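Holo model, copper (II) ion. Inputs:
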Amino acid sequence: MSSRRTFIQSAIGAATVLGCPSRLLGMNRKRASDRPNSSTPLKVISPDLQALSFTIDNGVKVFQLTAEPVKRKIAPWKTIDCWGFNGSCPGPTIQVNQGDRVRLILENRLPESTAIHWHGLEIPYAMDGMPYLSQKPIAPGSRFAYEFTVHQNGTFFYHSHSPMQQMMGMVGLFILHPQQAHTPAVDHDFGVVLQEWAVLPNNTVPNTASMEWNWLTFNGAVSPMTTPLIVRLGSRVRIRFVNIGMDHHPIHLHGHTFVVTGTEAGRQPETMWGPMNTVLVGVAQARDIEFVANNPGEWMLHCHMPHHNMNAMSDLLGDRMMMTADTEDDRALRQMQTLADDVGFEHVHHAPIAAGANQVPGFPQDAFMDMGMDEAVAKPQNNGLPRNWSAMMMGMMSLVRVLPPDLYDDVMRDIRNGYISPASSATDHSNHHNEGGGE
Ligand SMILES: [Cu+2]
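Output:
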């Protein structure tokens, strides 16, 4: 069971020993691409979201979008009542090519009127999706056909222009591919929608009037339920971020340096590509980042706002009060264990604390909170991660798994076959697991 995990860990370790990233890059470059033709743009993968299919009518690509209430499981123990499209929140990802004629037929199954705005698209005014300005509000039960030719390329998005509907989740990626892939060509292309939600404990409906967000999602999931981005060591990777919400999100990638190659208005000239490892994705903005995945490992990708990489544990507490007096190790652990037992997760026993911890003002902060839920979020993309990897994965966060070629091929095969490897029993790398911190 853990043999392959061990193999993955040791292979990553071995590759690290080789050191020099450029050497790794050269070594793997030939095998880095799965692409038949590097001048054809890659389809964008938006983890945890579906792509929207289309039909062709006289050369026009026709998409059907249904605006409707959606139940979205954002965490293993939390499903919210949001609004979205085609049963999904965010809505399914639309991908078309520069120059395409597209028709997007919106059917409104919401209990109120709506319309869709195509954010940043230079299209005829009548297609802009502004109720009372460019069109009549689309009444519940009725439809409206948007039709235009796209002449831009880049990372765009669609959304309801009604603010409260936006905060209920009515957004989706709209990728406009260039006719020829941008150079240098990428080997992996991902899209991620950033959203935030205010959902009180034991509630399911977001409070769209609140300014205090307790759930923050990548593509409609909080970590550790977010699906990792799987990339081959040495490959060139693009990740596209879109932010619709009330906060700006500084998105940080571990272990790599990237450049921002695009904004919500399309490709940036190369002269703008300064090195970064954190990109601020402002409200209503898109940012494309690109990097060479030359550093093997399981790298965090997350918003760096501290409250944005936390989950709302109050939901696990249910109607119990968090007892802040429970700072004694035994009592705190007992309390956390009852929570964990309730939901079937593993309360990790536990990151070490100092003997005199209670004498220190401010204690505890993160102590006692480690809660692993590897089984609850098991999926092929997580195969090979160390035991309790999920314990510190929270909020607006995912992993970029930079895997050596053979291991990359293994995980991709598992994804195709839907194979989930059994959870490993050993804890590895243990950045959180020093002496005294058993399993
Ligand atoms: Cu954030």
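The longest strand covers residues 60-75. Residues 216, 247, 249, 303, 305, 308, 396 surround copper (II) ion (CB under 6 Å).
Archived with the compound record.
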